[in-house]
Amino acid sequence: MPIEEVEETAEAIETMEIRGAATIAGAAAAALESQAAASEATDPEAFEAELRAAARTLYQTRPTAVSLPNALRFVLQDLEGATVEELRETVLTRTRKFRADLEHAQERLGRIGANRLRDGDVIMTHCHSTDALATVEHAVDAGKDIEAIVKETRPRNQGHITAQRLRELGVPVTLIVDSAAHRYLNDVDHVLVGADSIAADGSVINKIGTSGLAVNARDRGTPIVVAAQTIKLHPGTLTGHTVEIEMRAESEVISKADREKIGEITVKNPAFDVTPPRHVDAIITERGQYPPESIVSLMRELYGDVDEEPWAE
Ligand code: RUB
Protein backbone atom coordinates (compact mmCIF):
# COMPACT_ATOMS: atom_id res chain seq x y z
CA MET A 1 0.00 0.00 0.00
CA PRO A 2 1.42 3.41 -0.94
CA ILE A 3 1.82 5.90 1.91
CA GLU A 4 -0.76 8.64 2.46
CA GLU A 5 1.40 11.28 0.81
CA VAL A 6 1.45 9.30 -2.44
CA GLU A 7 -2.34 8.90 -2.32
CA GLU A 8 -2.73 12.63 -1.66
CA THR A 9 -0.45 13.57 -4.55
CA ALA A 10 -2.33 11.21 -6.84
CA GLU A 11 -5.64 12.76 -5.84
CA ALA A 12 -4.30 16.29 -6.29
CA ILE A 13 -3.12 15.39 -9.82
CA GLU A 14 -6.48 13.80 -10.66
CA THR A 15 -8.48 16.80 -9.43
CA MET A 16 -5.99 19.17 -11.14
CA GLU A 17 -4.98 20.90 -7.93
CA ILE A 18 -1.54 19.88 -9.21
CA ARG A 19 -1.58 20.39 -12.96
CA GLY A 20 0.59 21.12 -15.99
CA ALA A 21 2.98 18.49 -17.32
CA ALA A 22 6.22 19.68 -15.69
CA THR A 23 4.60 20.31 -12.30
CA ILE A 24 2.92 16.89 -12.36
CA ALA A 25 6.29 15.21 -13.09
CA GLY A 26 8.01 17.03 -10.22
CA ALA A 27 5.19 16.14 -7.81
CA ALA A 28 5.32 12.47 -8.85
CA ALA A 29 9.07 12.32 -8.24
CA ALA A 30 8.59 13.99 -4.84
CA ALA A 31 5.92 11.42 -3.95
CA LEU A 32 8.25 8.52 -4.83
CA GLU A 33 10.93 10.17 -2.72
CA SER A 34 8.56 10.28 0.28
CA GLN A 35 7.59 6.66 -0.30
CA ALA A 36 11.23 5.57 -0.33
CA ALA A 37 12.10 7.65 2.73
CA ALA A 38 9.13 6.35 4.74
CA SER A 39 9.36 2.70 3.72
CA GLU A 40 9.61 0.20 6.55
CA ALA A 41 10.26 -2.71 4.20
CA THR A 42 12.72 -5.20 5.60
CA ASP A 43 13.82 -6.86 2.37
CA PRO A 44 14.70 -5.47 -1.08
CA GLU A 45 11.81 -7.25 -2.85
CA ALA A 46 9.23 -5.70 -0.50
CA PHE A 47 10.84 -2.28 -0.90
CA GLU A 48 10.73 -2.47 -4.71
CA ALA A 49 7.14 -3.75 -4.62
CA GLU A 50 6.12 -0.74 -2.52
CA LEU A 51 7.78 1.66 -4.95
CA ARG A 52 6.12 -0.03 -7.92
CA ALA A 53 2.70 0.20 -6.23
CA ALA A 54 3.27 3.90 -5.51
CA ALA A 55 4.28 4.47 -9.14
CA ARG A 56 1.16 2.67 -10.39
CA THR A 57 -1.06 4.85 -8.17
CA LEU A 58 0.55 7.97 -9.62
CA TYR A 59 0.57 6.65 -13.19
CA GLN A 60 -3.18 5.97 -13.18
CA THR A 61 -4.14 9.59 -12.45
CA ARG A 62 -4.04 11.28 -15.86
CA PRO A 63 -3.06 9.61 -19.13
CA THR A 64 -1.86 12.33 -21.52
CA ALA A 65 1.19 14.10 -20.06
CA VAL A 66 4.12 11.75 -20.75
CA SER A 67 6.25 13.69 -18.29
CA LEU A 68 4.54 11.60 -15.59
CA PRO A 69 5.64 8.12 -16.81
CA ASN A 70 8.99 9.61 -17.88
CA ALA A 71 9.52 10.75 -14.28
CA LEU A 72 8.51 7.37 -12.84
CA ARG A 73 10.81 5.57 -15.29
CA PHE A 74 13.74 7.85 -14.50
CA VAL A 75 13.45 6.91 -10.82
CA LEU A 76 12.61 3.22 -11.05
CA GLN A 77 14.36 1.87 -14.18
CA ASP A 78 17.03 -0.74 -13.29
CA LEU A 79 17.15 0.09 -9.60
CA GLU A 80 20.60 -0.54 -8.18
CA GLY A 81 21.19 -1.91 -4.69
CA ALA A 82 21.44 -5.23 -2.88
CA THR A 83 19.93 -4.04 0.40
CA VAL A 84 16.95 -1.87 1.37
CA GLU A 85 19.32 0.92 2.39
CA GLU A 86 21.18 0.84 -0.91
CA LEU A 87 17.94 0.83 -2.88
CA ARG A 88 16.57 3.69 -0.78
CA GLU A 89 19.72 5.70 -1.45
CA THR A 90 19.39 5.08 -5.20
CA VAL A 91 15.77 6.25 -5.24
CA LEU A 92 16.49 9.34 -3.14
CA THR A 93 19.48 10.30 -5.32
CA ARG A 94 17.45 9.87 -8.49
CA THR A 95 14.35 11.74 -7.32
CA ARG A 96 16.51 14.67 -6.19
CA LYS A 97 18.38 14.65 -9.48
CA PHE A 98 15.14 14.49 -11.46
CA ARG A 99 13.71 17.51 -9.66
CA ALA A 100 16.91 19.52 -9.99
CA ASP A 101 17.17 18.63 -13.72
CA LEU A 102 13.56 19.75 -14.20
CA GLU A 103 14.36 23.19 -12.89
CA HIS A 104 17.61 23.52 -14.84
CA ALA A 105 15.95 22.34 -18.05
CA GLN A 106 13.20 24.94 -17.73
CA GLU A 107 15.74 27.64 -17.04
CA ARG A 108 17.82 26.65 -20.08
CA LEU A 109 14.79 26.29 -22.32
CA GLY A 110 13.66 29.73 -21.16
CA ARG A 111 16.96 31.28 -22.18
CA ILE A 112 16.88 29.58 -25.59
CA GLY A 113 13.23 30.48 -26.24
CA ALA A 114 13.76 34.10 -25.23
CA ASN A 115 16.03 34.53 -28.27
CA ARG A 116 12.98 34.20 -30.52
CA LEU A 117 11.17 37.05 -28.79
CA ARG A 118 12.11 40.57 -29.89
CA ASP A 119 11.60 43.83 -28.08
CA GLY A 120 8.00 44.95 -28.65
CA ASP A 121 6.64 41.51 -29.62
CA VAL A 122 3.08 40.42 -28.86
CA ILE A 123 2.45 36.77 -28.00
CA MET A 124 -0.77 34.79 -27.81
CA THR A 125 -1.00 32.05 -25.18
CA HIS A 126 -3.27 29.08 -24.61
CA CYS A 127 -3.69 27.32 -21.25
CA HIS A 128 -0.93 27.73 -18.63
CA SER A 129 2.49 26.36 -19.39
CA THR A 130 5.46 26.92 -17.09
CA ASP A 131 7.82 26.09 -19.97
CA ALA A 132 6.21 28.72 -22.22
CA LEU A 133 6.26 31.30 -19.43
CA ALA A 134 9.96 30.61 -18.78
CA THR A 135 10.75 31.99 -22.25
CA VAL A 136 8.75 35.17 -21.55
CA GLU A 137 10.43 35.57 -18.17
CA HIS A 138 13.88 35.40 -19.75
CA ALA A 139 12.92 37.84 -22.49
CA VAL A 140 11.59 40.29 -19.89
CA ASP A 141 14.75 39.83 -17.78
CA ALA A 142 16.77 40.69 -20.89
CA GLY A 143 14.96 44.03 -20.98
CA LYS A 144 12.51 43.27 -23.81
CA ASP A 145 8.99 44.69 -23.75
CA ILE A 146 6.55 41.86 -24.40
CA GLU A 147 2.76 42.05 -24.52
CA ALA A 148 0.37 39.12 -24.31
CA ILE A 149 -3.05 38.20 -25.59
CA VAL A 150 -4.21 35.42 -23.29
CA LYS A 151 -6.94 32.95 -24.24
CA GLU A 152 -9.09 32.07 -21.26
CA THR A 153 -8.96 28.32 -22.11
CA ARG A 154 -12.33 26.85 -21.33
CA PRO A 155 -13.48 24.84 -19.51
CA ARG A 156 -10.95 25.24 -16.67
CA ASN A 157 -9.79 28.78 -17.45
CA GLN A 158 -6.07 28.11 -17.00
CA GLY A 159 -5.63 31.36 -18.98
CA HIS A 160 -6.40 33.16 -15.73
CA ILE A 161 -3.29 31.62 -14.15
CA THR A 162 -1.22 32.66 -17.19
CA ALA A 163 -2.63 36.19 -17.01
CA GLN A 164 -1.72 36.43 -13.34
CA ARG A 165 1.83 35.10 -13.84
CA LEU A 166 2.39 37.48 -16.77
CA ARG A 167 1.19 40.43 -14.71
CA GLU A 168 3.67 39.38 -11.99
CA LEU A 169 6.36 39.72 -14.68
CA GLY A 170 5.02 43.17 -15.58
CA VAL A 171 3.71 42.03 -18.99
CA PRO A 172 0.58 43.90 -20.21
CA VAL A 173 -2.21 41.32 -20.71
CA THR A 174 -5.36 41.30 -22.81
CA LEU A 175 -7.70 38.45 -21.89
CA ILE A 176 -9.96 37.08 -24.64
CA VAL A 177 -12.48 34.25 -24.92
CA ASP A 178 -11.15 31.30 -26.91
CA SER A 179 -13.35 31.95 -29.92
CA ALA A 180 -11.87 35.46 -30.35
CA ALA A 181 -8.40 34.11 -31.19
CA HIS A 182 -8.69 34.40 -34.99
CA ARG A 183 -9.89 38.00 -34.63
CA TYR A 184 -6.71 39.01 -32.78
CA LEU A 185 -4.05 36.90 -34.53
CA ASN A 186 -3.20 39.77 -36.90
CA ASP A 187 -1.91 41.69 -33.87
CA VAL A 188 0.31 38.81 -32.73
CA ASP A 189 3.98 38.00 -33.54
CA HIS A 190 4.07 34.47 -32.04
CA VAL A 191 1.64 31.94 -30.70
CA LEU A 192 3.45 30.45 -27.69
CA VAL A 193 2.19 27.24 -26.09
CA GLY A 194 3.50 24.32 -24.03
CA ALA A 195 3.05 20.58 -24.51
CA ASP A 196 1.94 17.55 -22.53
CA SER A 197 3.46 15.10 -24.98
CA ILE A 198 5.35 15.28 -28.26
CA ALA A 199 5.06 12.31 -30.60
CA ALA A 200 7.84 10.85 -32.74
CA ASP A 201 6.41 12.47 -35.89
CA GLY A 202 6.58 15.90 -34.22
CA SER A 203 2.86 16.15 -33.39
CA VAL A 204 2.22 18.26 -30.33
CA ILE A 205 -0.32 17.10 -27.76
CA ASN A 206 -1.46 20.01 -25.63
CA LYS A 207 -4.57 21.55 -24.06
CA ILE A 208 -7.75 21.20 -26.09
CA GLY A 209 -7.99 24.13 -28.49
CA THR A 210 -4.29 24.20 -29.37
CA SER A 211 -4.84 22.53 -32.75
CA GLY A 212 -7.62 24.96 -33.73
CA LEU A 213 -5.44 27.86 -32.65
CA ALA A 214 -2.58 26.49 -34.78
CA VAL A 215 -4.83 26.23 -37.85
CA ASN A 216 -5.96 29.83 -37.29
CA ALA A 217 -2.38 30.97 -36.79
CA ARG A 218 -1.35 29.30 -40.07
CA ASP A 219 -4.22 31.08 -41.79
CA ARG A 220 -2.94 34.40 -40.49
CA GLY A 221 0.75 33.55 -41.08
CA THR A 222 1.60 33.78 -37.39
CA PRO A 223 4.41 31.44 -36.22
CA ILE A 224 3.56 28.79 -33.63
CA VAL A 225 6.24 28.04 -31.09
CA VAL A 226 6.02 25.14 -28.64
CA ALA A 227 8.09 25.33 -25.44
CA ALA A 228 8.63 21.81 -24.13
CA GLN A 229 11.39 20.26 -22.06
CA THR A 230 12.60 16.88 -23.28
CA ILE A 231 10.58 15.10 -20.55
CA LYS A 232 7.60 15.89 -22.81
CA LEU A 233 8.99 13.60 -25.55
CA HIS A 234 6.87 10.45 -25.71
CA PRO A 235 9.20 7.47 -26.27
CA GLY A 236 6.27 5.06 -26.68
CA THR A 237 5.39 6.76 -29.97
CA LEU A 238 8.73 5.56 -31.39
CA THR A 239 7.24 2.10 -31.47
CA GLY A 240 3.87 3.10 -32.83
CA HIS A 241 1.88 3.81 -29.66
CA THR A 242 -0.54 6.70 -29.85
CA VAL A 243 -1.03 9.21 -27.06
CA GLU A 244 -4.20 8.73 -25.07
CA ILE A 245 -6.34 11.84 -24.88
CA GLU A 246 -7.88 12.28 -21.45
CA MET A 247 -11.67 12.67 -21.35
CA ARG A 248 -12.80 14.61 -18.28
CA ALA A 249 -16.13 14.97 -16.48
CA GLU A 250 -18.99 16.75 -18.22
CA SER A 251 -19.55 18.78 -15.04
CA GLU A 252 -16.52 20.88 -16.10
CA VAL A 253 -18.48 21.97 -19.19
CA ILE A 254 -22.07 22.40 -18.03
CA SER A 255 -23.92 22.59 -14.73
CA LYS A 256 -26.42 19.90 -13.80
CA ALA A 257 -29.24 22.47 -13.82
CA ASP A 258 -28.38 23.76 -17.32
CA ARG A 259 -28.06 20.25 -18.64
CA GLU A 260 -31.51 19.31 -17.34
CA LYS A 261 -33.04 22.49 -18.78
CA ILE A 262 -31.65 21.74 -22.27
CA GLY A 263 -32.93 18.18 -22.38
CA GLU A 264 -31.31 14.98 -23.61
CA ILE A 265 -27.82 15.77 -24.94
CA THR A 266 -24.39 14.21 -25.04
CA VAL A 267 -21.55 16.24 -23.53
CA LYS A 268 -17.91 15.54 -24.41
CA ASN A 269 -14.95 17.02 -22.63
CA PRO A 270 -11.59 16.00 -24.13
CA ALA A 271 -8.78 17.70 -22.18
CA PHE A 272 -6.18 17.69 -24.98
CA ASP A 273 -5.80 17.59 -28.75
CA VAL A 274 -3.14 16.81 -31.35
CA THR A 275 -1.54 19.49 -33.50
CA PRO A 276 0.17 18.00 -36.56
CA PRO A 277 3.82 18.94 -37.20
CA ARG A 278 2.96 20.93 -40.34
CA HIS A 279 1.23 23.51 -38.12
CA VAL A 280 4.18 23.96 -35.78
CA ASP A 281 7.18 26.19 -36.55
CA ALA A 282 9.57 25.21 -33.77
CA ILE A 283 9.83 23.11 -30.64
CA ILE A 284 12.04 24.72 -28.03
CA THR A 285 13.71 22.33 -25.62
CA GLU A 286 16.57 22.72 -23.15
CA ARG A 287 18.73 21.08 -25.84
CA GLY A 288 17.96 23.72 -28.47
CA GLN A 289 15.28 24.52 -31.05
CA TYR A 290 13.99 21.81 -33.36
CA PRO A 291 11.73 21.77 -36.38
CA PRO A 292 9.01 19.29 -35.30
CA GLU A 293 9.97 16.76 -37.99
CA SER A 294 13.48 16.35 -36.56
CA ILE A 295 12.52 15.88 -32.90
CA VAL A 296 12.56 12.11 -33.42
CA SER A 297 16.38 12.00 -33.43
CA LEU A 298 16.52 13.69 -30.02
CA MET A 299 13.82 11.31 -28.75
CA ARG A 300 15.85 8.28 -29.85
CA GLU A 301 19.05 9.66 -28.37
CA LEU A 302 17.47 10.39 -24.97
CA TYR A 303 15.08 7.49 -24.52
CA GLY A 304 15.69 4.69 -27.03
CA ASP A 305 12.95 2.10 -27.27
CA VAL A 306 10.91 1.68 -24.12
CA ASP A 307 9.81 -1.87 -23.39
CA GLU A 308 8.06 -2.85 -20.22
CA GLU A 309 7.41 -0.15 -17.66
CA PRO A 310 9.43 -0.70 -14.45
CA TRP A 311 6.29 -0.32 -12.31
CA ALA A 312 4.43 -3.19 -13.99
CA GLU A 313 3.15 -5.81 -11.54
C1 RUB B 1 -1.89 21.83 -19.05
C2 RUB B 1 -1.36 22.06 -20.42
C3 RUB B 1 -0.01 22.72 -20.52
C4 RUB B 1 1.08 21.64 -20.57
C5 RUB B 1 2.47 22.24 -20.42
O1 RUB B 1 -3.09 21.08 -19.05
O2 RUB B 1 -1.93 21.68 -21.42
O3 RUB B 1 0.08 23.48 -21.70
O4 RUB B 1 0.89 20.71 -19.52
O5 RUB B 1 2.63 22.81 -19.14
P1 RUB B 1 -3.83 20.79 -17.64
P2 RUB B 1 4.10 22.96 -18.50
O6 RUB B 1 -4.16 22.11 -17.04
O7 RUB B 1 -5.03 20.00 -18.02
O8 RUB B 1 -2.86 19.99 -16.79
O9 RUB B 1 4.88 23.76 -19.47
O10 RUB B 1 3.88 23.69 -17.19
O11 RUB B 1 4.65 21.60 -18.31
Structural notes for this entry:
This protein has 313 residues and is of the alpha/beta class. The protein folds into two domains: 4-108, Four Helix Bundle (Hemerythrin (Met), subunit A); 116-303, 3-Layer(aba) Sandwich (Rossmann fold), CATH 3.40.50. 45% of the residues lie in helices and 12% in strands. The protein has eleven helices and ten strands. The strands form two sheets. Strands 3-2-1-4-7-9-10 form a seven-stranded mixed beta sheet, sandwiched between helices. It has a three-stranded antiparallel beta sheet with strand order 5-6-8, covered by helices on one side. Helix 2 (21-38) runs antiparallel to helix 3 and helix 3 runs antiparallel to helix 4 (67-76). 43% of the residues are buried. The model has no long low-confidence stretch (mean pLDDT 97). Bound molecules: ribulose-1,5-diphosphate. The site of ribulose-1,5-diphosphate has 18 residues, from helix 2, helix 6 and strand 6.
Going by CATH, the homologous superfamily of the largest domain would be Translation initiation factor eif-2b, domain 2
Q: Determine the number of helices (DSSP H or I, runs of at least 4 residues).
A: 11
CATH fold-type name of the largest domain: Rossmann fold
Count of extended strands: 10
| Distance between the first and last residues' Cα | 13 Å
Helix content: 40-55%
Number of separate structural domains: 2
CATH structural architecture of the largest domain: 3-Layer(aba) Sandwich
Radius of gyration: 20 Å
Structural class: alpha/beta
Q: Any idea of the CATH class of the largest domain?
A: Alpha Beta
The overall pLDDT, averaged over residues, is 97
Bound molecules: ribulose-1,5-diphosphate
Low-confidence stretches: none
Spatial order of strands in the largest sheet: 3-2-1-4-7-9-10
CA-based shape: globular
How big a fraction of the residues is strand? Answer: 5-15%
Strand count, sense and barrel status of the largest sheet are: 7 strands, mixed
H-E string: HHHHHEHEHEHEEEHEHEEEH
